[in-house]
């Protein structure tokens, strides 16, 4: 544990492991999130940082201040061996940033200095994370589904805005039932075998598309299994929800995400490719939206990334940012040399649809070669 003063006692910063936060601090974290007015994204809740802390030894939380009203902020992060920092859960976290009271007077440089960080990298910085937004290199839209008025209202939006998509998807569900057996959906499946099936499908999808298999990393697969074991009554801010679409009791599509009381953050969707012609993943998402609305959830965050199904399902977007805040000094130059060329190359390809298409085909070819 470290204890650093920044411009007076009001900005005293104490760095702890996520598991060292006490009950009062966790409650204060939740209060500050509620005061921010931002959607209650589960990745931004204390339970997610605590879960990452159990599998990532470099996970830390800077507790800012601590007067009679409690801390004025929290900054979850991971620290590398050379002082290079990243958002906590970087690589799988879909919403990132500090949790701060409006009264804070910190600068990004002061916060990084107090945490002994030469840099802090992010790829899904929440729009409200104003302390670091000026350091963003790029901005992205994260599509969302608003079900705050109930599923029927959302279905009416789909019928009006994406009528062909809605008709085709519901017709495929009826055809699936006729040709393969009874279709059944479970919103919060607790069978560990279903989670293993989903992870196997997702790993196969990563390989098939030439992408890095996230579940090949032990800390990610362990994190997912641990979050899947949490229940909303024990972890109201962030618990796992496994949703499964069954046909004749055979799983054909599944999704594992994180939920708070009001937001479901979509994370790992996958399906059985034997049933691809029925678009079971799309059927699953519609069923999931209906069940989530019934459970009091008002928003589904589909996550950053271009995809046709997201365009068809979404009702709006949230803004997220990618980039890094880097303190002045020799390590800043090292960071830029190691990270910026890669970032610029990815951005160059993303901004040119023809090149992006070539890149996608190349990745699929790599995936086919891997499977031989």
UniProtKB/TrEMBL annotation:
InterPro entries membership: Acyl_CoA_acyltransferase (IPR016181), BioF2-like_GNAT_dom (IPR038740)
UniProt-listed Enzyme Commission number(s): 2.3.1.-
One function term, GO molecular function aspect: acyltransferase activity
Residue span, BioF2-like acetyltransferase domain: 166-310
A Pfam family it matches: Acetyltransf_6
SUPFAM superfamilies, alphabetized: Acyl-CoA N-acyltransferases (Nat)
Keyword terms, alphabetized: Acyltransferase, Transferase
Domain of life: Bacteria
Name of the protein described by the UniProt record: GNAT family N-acetyltransferase
């Amino acid at each position: 544990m470290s204890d650093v003063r920044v411009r007076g006692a009001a900005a005293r910063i104490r760095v702890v492991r996520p598991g060292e936060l006490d009950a009062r601090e966790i409650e204060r974290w939740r209060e500050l999130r509620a005061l921010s007015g931002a959607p209650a994204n589960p990745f931004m809740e204390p339970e997610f940082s605590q879960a990452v802390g159990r599998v990532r030894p470099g996970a830390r939380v800077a507790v800012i201040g601590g007067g009679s009203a409690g801390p004025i902020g929290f900054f979850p992060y991971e620290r590398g061996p050379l002082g290079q920092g990243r958002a906590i859960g970087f690589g799988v976290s879909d919403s990132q940033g500090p949790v701060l009271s409006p009264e804070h007077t910190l600068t990004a440089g002061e916060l990084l200095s107090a945490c002994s960080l030469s840099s802090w990298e992010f790829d899904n910085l929440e729009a409200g994370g104003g302390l670091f937004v000026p350091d963003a290199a790029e901005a992205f839209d994260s599509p969302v589904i608003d079900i705050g008025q109930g599923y029927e209202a959302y279905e009416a939006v789909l019928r009006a805005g994406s009528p062909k998509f809605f008709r085709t998807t519901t017709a495929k569900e009826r055809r699936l039932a006729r040709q393969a057996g009874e279709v059944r959906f479970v919103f919060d499946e607790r069978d560990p075998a279903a989670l293993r099936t989903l992870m196997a499908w997702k790993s196969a999808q990563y390989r098939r598309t030439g992408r890095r298999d996230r579940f090949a990393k032990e800390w990610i697969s362990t994190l997912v299994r641990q979050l899947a074991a949490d229940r909303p009554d024990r972890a109201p801010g962030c618990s796992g929800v496994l949703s499964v679409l069954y046909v004749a009791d055979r799983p054909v599509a599944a999704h594992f995400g994180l939920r708070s009381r009001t937001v479901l953050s979509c994370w790992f969707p996958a399906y059985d490719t034997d049933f691809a012609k029925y678009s079971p993943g799309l059927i699953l998402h519609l069923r999931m939206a209906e069940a989530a609305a019934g459970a009091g959830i008002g928003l589904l965050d589909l996550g950053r990334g271009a995809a046709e199904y997201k365009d068809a399902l979404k009702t709006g977007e949230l803004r997220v940012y990618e980039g890094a805040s880097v303190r002045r000094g020799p390590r800043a130059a090292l960071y830029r040399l190691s990270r910026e060329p890669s970032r610029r190359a990815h951005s160059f390809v993303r901004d040119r649809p023809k090149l992006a298409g070539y890149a996608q085909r190349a990745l699929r070819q790599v995936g086919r070669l891997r499977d031989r």
